[in-house]
């Protein structure tokens, strides 16, 4: 029986603390808010109970007293509970009320602080809340006062006279009143002011104005909650310190079609460049129902002259069976190892092995040419790879005199992404989808099974990016011309090429 009141941070999933993440990972039940990200929830145990209690204006999934009682009930069932709250639980997060209820019920708990949106939103917008020459203090203010309280609890004259930076949260509905009250209390209408919407996330938008003009500007620009209001001279620093919105792909949306377990590298690289990333996995990688053929090949591993891995998945599933059979790298004996690309080489090095050969171009054709140049006559070659892969590599090696055992190590199947199809179609219609990336010919085929080639042709503003010529050929077979193909057929190469194309 235990409850963690966890500050999930302002929106960027990377801003949760390590302590908060570890508490989330061990919880039996996770009670989460509207602002909690899917990426954070993915860290919960697979068997954890996920309970949504989010609140939006006029739409509360569960009233606060019921949330309090829920936490008590779950804890008294003997569960470890993670109460995942946006920002910091004790800064306008009603974490104090939840803690009181837990204390009164005799439930042990702890509060794990989080980074508040009041601090992080302005920071990501290039607005320091304090500055040696502009502001030496900060005042945090709720813009949504308790309607049951008579009059305002705020001393508007004191706020207007203060040299503090003023930060209002949950204040968009009352923004005209906030502006009017400050000006009526003596603040200059020309005082710099800003709005930061969905701060720290890929949806972030910022607006710089003055306290007098801000309400009208907000309406014109379509700003709504969740937004942070900042008032003070520090807003003038945004011109120099606006680092986040200057990232090269900020405001662009990139769709990744790779298998979910493979997409993390691509997603991280695009996100680091400021892109909004949508994962639309078109394939799923899974073990074969029967590993007998692979196990037999591993049993005679030392008899091969070459073992050729064509993908990181091939290495992963080969290692899975190697470990299951109680073997390690010593089982390779005299066999040399070839890989097609750097990602596969990196996965191999994680096993303590180094490739003996990597082709100059990371495609099967180049691998075949390079291996043949090393001499294949009479050589025994093991090729552990996907079930139903392209025939070009084993065929060319056999033609050069090699004895090739082409053994399936895993299979790829179409992923279930039916729940995302409508989202993608909506993005296309809205013109907000900047680029779709394809990492293999199978991702092309499976994506087009969900979203037709004719639909893509109707939206030429959405760029199609292919990782290499084989994938590009699959697009052309469907009547689509790739807009982007990197010189280096790797994920880093693809990201670099997409960035160059979208920033041109």
Q: How can the largest sheet be summarized?
A: 5 strands, parallel
User: What is the first-to-last residue Cα distance?
Assistant: 56 Å
Low-confidence stretches: none
Which architecture of the largest domain would the CATH scheme give at its second level?
Answer: 2-Layer Sandwich
How does the helix and strand content classify structurally? Answer: alpha/beta
Rg from alpha-carbon coordinates: 28 Å
Tell me the number of strands: 21
**Overall pLDDT:** 91
Annotation field: number of helices: 20
Helix content: 25-40%
Q: Please, how many domains?
A: 4
- CATH topology heading of the largest domain: Methyltransferase, Cobalt-precorrin-4 Transmethylase, Domain 2
Assess the beta-strand content as a share of residues.
15-25%
Strand order, sheet with most strands: 3-2-6-1-7
Shape: elongated
CATH superfamily of the largest domain: Tetrapyrrole methylase, C-terminal domain
CATH hierarchy class name of the largest domain:
Alpha Beta
Molecular structure report:
- The protein is an alpha/beta fold and 504 residues long.
- The chain folds into 4 domains: 2-114, Cobalt-precorrin-4 Transmethylase, domain 1; 119-246, Methyltransferase, Cobalt-precorrin-4 Transmethylase, Domain 2; 253-282 and 415-503, Rossmann fold; 286-412, Rossmann fold (3-Layer(aba) Sandwich).
- The protein is built from 20 helices and 21 strands.
- The strands form 5 sheets. It has a 5-stranded parallel beta sheet, with helices on both faces.
- Helix 10 packs parallel to helix 20 (491-503), helix 14 (364-373) packs parallel to helix 15 and helix 17 packs parallel to helix 19 (469-477).
- The longest helix has 13 residues, at 64-76.
- The relative contact order is 0.08.
- The mean pLDDT is 91.
């Amino acid at each position: 029986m235990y409850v963690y009141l966890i500050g999930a941070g302002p929106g960027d999933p990377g801003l949760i603390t390590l302590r908060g993440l570890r508490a989330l990972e061990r919880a039996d039940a996770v009670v989460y808010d509207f602002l909690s990200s899917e990426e954070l929830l993915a860290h919960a145990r697979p068997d954890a109970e996920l309970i949504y209690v989010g609140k939006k204006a006029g739409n509360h999934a569960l009233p606060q007293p019921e949330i309090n009682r829920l936490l008590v009930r779950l804890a008294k069932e003997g569960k470890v509970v993670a109460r995942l709250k946006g920002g910091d639980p004790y800064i306008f997060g009603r974490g104090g009320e939840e803690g009181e209820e837990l204390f009164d019920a005799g439930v042990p708990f702890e509060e794990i602080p989080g980074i508040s949106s009041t601090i992080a939103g302005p920071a990501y917008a290039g607005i320091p809340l304090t500055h040696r020459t502009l502001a030496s203090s900060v005042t945090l203010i709720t813009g949504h006062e308790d309607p049951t309280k008579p009059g305002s609890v705020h001393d508007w004259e004191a706020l207007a006279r203060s040299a503090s930076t003023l930060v209002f949260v949950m204040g968009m509905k009352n923004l005209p009143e906030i502006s009017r009250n400050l000006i009526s209390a003596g603040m200059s209408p020309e005082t710099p002011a800003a709005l930061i919407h969905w701060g720290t996330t890929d949806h972030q938008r910022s607006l710089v104005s003055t306290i007098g003009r801000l309400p009208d500007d907000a309406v014109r620009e379509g700003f709504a909650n969740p937004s942070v209001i900042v008032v003070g001279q520090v807003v003038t620093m945004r011109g120099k310190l606006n680092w986040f919105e200057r990232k090269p792909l900020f405001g662009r949306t990139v769709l990744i079609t790779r298998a979910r377990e493979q997409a993390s590298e691509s997603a991280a690289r695009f996100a680091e460049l400021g892109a909004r990333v949508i994962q639309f996995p078109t394939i799923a990688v899974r073990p074969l129902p029967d590993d007998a053929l692979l196990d037999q090949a591993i049993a005679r591993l030392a008899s091969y002259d070459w073992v050729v891995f064509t993908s990181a998945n091939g290495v992963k599933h080969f290692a899975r069976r190697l470990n299951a059979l109680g073997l390690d790298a010593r089982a390779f004996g005299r066999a040399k190892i070839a890989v097609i690309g750097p990602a596969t080489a990196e996965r191999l090095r994680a096993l303590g092995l180094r490739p003996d050969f990597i082709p100059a171009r990371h495609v099967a054709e180049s691998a075949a040419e390079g291996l043949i140049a090393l001499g294949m006559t009479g050589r025994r070659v093991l090729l552990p790879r996907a079930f139903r892969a392209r025939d070009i590599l084993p065929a060319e090696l056999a033609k050069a005199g090699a004895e090739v055992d082409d053994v399936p190590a895993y299979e790829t199947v179409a992923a279930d992404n039916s729940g995302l199809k409508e989202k993608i179609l909506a993005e296309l219609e809205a013109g907000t989808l900047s680029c779709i990336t394809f990492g293999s010919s199978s991702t092309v085929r499976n994506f087009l099974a969900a979203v037709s080639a004719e639909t893509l042709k109707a939206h030429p503003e959405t760029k199609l990016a292919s990782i290499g010529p084989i994938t590009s050929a699959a697009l052309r077979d469907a009547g689509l011309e790739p807009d982007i193909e990197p010189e280096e057929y790797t994920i880093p190469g693809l990201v670099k090429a997409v960035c160059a194309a979208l920033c041109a």
